[in-house]
Amino acid sequence: MRTKIITLTTDFVSDLYVGQMKGVILSINPEVKLIDLTHKIKSFNILETAFFIWQVCPSFPDETIHLIVVDPGVGSDRTALIIRTERHLYIGPNNGIFHFIEENQEVREVVKINTKAFKNSSATFQGKDIFAPLASLLSTGRKMEKFGERVDKKIIEKLNLPEGCILYIDDFGNIITNIKKEFSPGEKLTVMYKGKKVKVTFARTFSDVQEGSYLVLKGSSGYLEIDKNKASAAKALGAQVGDKIGIFKES
Asked: How many helices and strands, by DSSP H and E, does the chain display?
């Protein structure tokens, strides 16, 4: 039987909270394999989380359990879910982080977690007291139905995203949008952001333009990216995840 994998995605940054979650998981199932995806999600950033897990989690083997704790509403009446897709399990708060998972994967089963069944859980650290033990118990073969009630996938919270929105900014300062327009290599474009107009070139890859020059390209996500060759487009524009942005043919 293959060793179960649990991945961890949080905005905790601090090893204090991550370490506590890992301790809980391994205390229940010391055989599980823990993989840190990231703990550097910007604090409370639901959209960044949603895009990140959609892009990263599908790369893992079948039956991987993905535990995501970016939870600005922790302790409130927000629901929490276990989602089974055709290949994986996802666990976390129902606050929009599963937006792209629901849109792009086949959701086969959803369970609304009965958080009250976890006695003495903290109102501020359900990642340790609810989600971590739940993920570990699932890795031992426990059925997801044991932890709550089955519900329709319509319960999955969706994000209200206009076309022309910044989904993610990577560490290179590349700005990933949700725009899917088609352009030809070498075509001259205009990026519009917060009243600024920037002239850019549509390119196949970064080296198609001079160092420090702006470009737009179709990224590996399938969406358009606004980049600078060997520089940060996000820093130059002051871009932030969630902001509106436009890409147009030069008139």
From this structure: 6, 14
Residue whose structure tokens are 């599980």: 32
CA 102 to chain CA mean position, Å: 12
Q: Which residue has the tokens 């959803």?
A: 110
Q: Kindly report the CATH number that applies to the domain delimited by 166-249.
A: 2.40.30.90
Q: Write out 64-127 in H/E/C secondary structure.
A: CEEEEECCCCCCCCCCEEEEEECCCEEEEECCCCCHHHHHHCCEEEEEEECHHHCCCCCCCCHH
Per-domain residue ranges of the chain: 5-155, 166-249
Same CATH topology for 5-155 and 166-249: the answer is: no
What 3-state DSSP class applies to 247? strand
Give backbone dihedrals phi and psi of 20, rounded to 5 degrees, phi first: -65, -40
pLDDT digits (tens, 9 = 90+) for 17-52: 999 999 999 999 999 999 999 999 999 999 999 999
pLDDT band at 148 (very low <50, low <70, confident <90, very high): very high
CATH number of 5-155: 3.40.50.10790
